[in-house]
């Protein structure tokens, strides 16, 4: 029986919108990650059979199939193809699933899966060009802003503003501790950028975490979507820039090349969920992927559930019965940022390195997605 393993995983640091990567083209940023990935793995670019990248706003510098353009910039042979996919916030996680499926089917042996997003240079929704939703959709479903969806989740699960702000503060504290302790050093590739003033800098640290973030500070922020609500910029994910990727391979190919895999993919699922609540999909996806793997949540050593908004992981914890001490232990998107198309493999890379650091066995990744969907993946460290 064929098996899919992860040979290597890397990412860029994550920059705030209009921050440290403001002058970095996303196709060139993705190319740097692709190049470093195969270099670290010791695999020749010519052996890669496909490059699948997630990207949500496929317009401007992210248009024209950025997986293909980035691979050519990175010096991959012209016969190595690339494809760009959009499953909203889980796009690069879905890229991993598609790559794994191609390997399991026997169509390929070596696939790169990853993602990229510059929310600075290609603003969110720019690919929509101001288009309205079809009435044939809105006649069937109440489609609302994700922030309002988060408000409804908070109300349905009974989360207070104080609970959400406390979770956000914890995200910042955990992220700052992880950065200070060097937990992210191995997974982040240093990237040299040049600003408009010609000054060159090396970027090797996530920009999002804010020292001095306290519940008192967050309590002073205005709500962002509902005057009487609980969601603010402080307990929601940050808009960000970044890129990430993993190298997938069949076990047999890894043995043939003399490579030592870091982990194997145990199970992967994707589900649809209520398009109005929109962000609750990780709950159903987690239940499904655990059942598929024949494992219990108690057997997971670490889990990453994307912090799109604080109510999302909190509702997940409540319904799944997870251990809060295993969830997003080095901070999440509230502190570290959420570069849409890159987030799936960014979190997978961090999960992989965290299992290595702590000698854990199983890790679970789940991400909510626009219009009501979610991916979930379980990996086992080898």
UniProtKB/TrEMBL annotation:
Family assignment? Belongs to the thiolase-like superfamily. Thiolase family.
- High-level lineage: Bacteria, Bacillati, Bacillota, Bacilli, Bacillales
Family annotation (PANTHER family): ACETYL-COA C-ACYLTRANSFERASE, BLR7806 PROTEIN
Q: What is this protein called?
A: Acetyl-CoA acetyltransferase
Please state every residue range assigned to the domain named Thiolase N-terminal: 4-251
* The organism of origin for this protein: Planococcus faecalis
Q: Which residues form the Thiolase C-terminal domain?
A: 259-381
Supply the InterPro entries for this chain: Thiolase (IPR002155), Thiolase-like (IPR016039), Thiolase_AS (IPR020610), Thiolase_C (IPR020617), Thiolase_CS (IPR020613), Thiolase_N (IPR020616)
Q: Which UniProt keywords apply?
A: Acyltransferase, Transferase
Out of the domains of life, which is the source? Bacteria
């Amino acid at each position: 029986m064929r098996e899919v393993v992860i040979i290597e995983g890397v990412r860029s640091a994550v920059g705030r919108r209009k921050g440290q990567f403001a002058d970095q083209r996303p196709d060139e940023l993705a190319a740097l990650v692709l190049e470093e990935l195969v270099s670290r793995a010791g695999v020749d670019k010519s052996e890669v059979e496909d490059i699948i990248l997630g990207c949500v706003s496929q317009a401007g510098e992210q248009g024209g199939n950025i997986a293909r353009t980035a691979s050519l910039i990175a010096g991959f042979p012209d016969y190595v193809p690339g494809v760009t996919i959009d499953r909203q916030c889980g796009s690069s996680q879905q890229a991993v699933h598609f790559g794994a499926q191609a390997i399991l089917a026997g169509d390929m042996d070596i696939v790169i899966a990853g993602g990229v997003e510059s929310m600075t240079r290609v603003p969110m929704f720019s690919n929509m060009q101001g288009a309205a939703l079809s009435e044939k959709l809105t006649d069937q479903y109440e489609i609302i802003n994700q922030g309002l969806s988060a408000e409804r989740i908070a109300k349905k699960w009974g989360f207070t503003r104080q609970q959400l702000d406390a979770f956000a503060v914890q995200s910042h504290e955990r992220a700052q501790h992880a950065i200070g302790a060097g937990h992210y050093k191995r997974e982040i590739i240093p990237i040299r950028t040049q600003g408009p003033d010609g000054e060159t800098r090396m970027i090797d640290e996530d920009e999002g975490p804010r020292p001095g973030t306290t519940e008192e500070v967050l309590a002073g922020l205005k709500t962002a979507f509902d005057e009487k609500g609980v969601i603010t910029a402080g307990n929601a994910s940050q808009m960000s820039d970044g890129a990430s990727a993993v190298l997938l391979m069949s076990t047999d190919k890894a043995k043939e090349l003399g490579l030592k895999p870091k982990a194997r993919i145990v199970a992967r699922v994707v589900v649809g969920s209520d398009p109005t609540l929109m962000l609750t999909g990780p709950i159903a996806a987690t239940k499904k992927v655990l059942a598929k793997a024949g494992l219990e949540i108690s057997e997971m050593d670490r889990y990453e559930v994307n912090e799109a908004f604080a109510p999302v992981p909190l509702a997940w914890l409540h319904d799944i019965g997870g251990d809060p001490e295993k969830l997003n232990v080095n901070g999440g998107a509230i502190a570290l940022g959420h570069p849409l198309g890159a987030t799936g493999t960014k979190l997978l890379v961090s999960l992989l390195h965290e299992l290595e650091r702590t000698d854990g066995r199983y890790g679970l990744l789940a991400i909510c997605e626009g219009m009501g969907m979610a991916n979930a993946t379980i990996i086992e460290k080898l």
